[in-house]
Specification:
The chain is mostly beta strands. It is built from 1 helix and 5 strands, in the order E-E-E-E-E-H. A 5-stranded antiparallel sheet has the order 3-2-1-4-5.
Length: 72
């Protein structure tokens, strides 16, 4: 999976409880790999409805849209 606009595999999500906290991750082999500096026990759960942002361009949308864009 990759960004449908720029092809990047680097994304982030915002903390649902704190709008200014973000969690960066890469999409590797179809899975989510959070940055090394992120404590995985504190990471939010990401599902198809999670608002996701590309780190390289202006794309943002639901995480499930990434999977759908790759199949199209």
């Amino acid at each position: 999976m990759a960004c449908p606009m720029c092809g990047s595999k680097k994304f982030y999500v915002k903390d649902p409880n704190e709008a200014y906290d973000t969690y960066s991750f890469d999409l590797e082999a179809g899975g989510i790999v959070f940055s090394e500096d992120v404590d995985e026990s504190e990471c939010p759960e990401i599902d198809d409805q999670t608002r996701t942002y590309c780190e390289q361009c202006a794309w943002n949308g639901r995480f499930g849209e990434l999977a759908k864009a790759c199949k199209d």
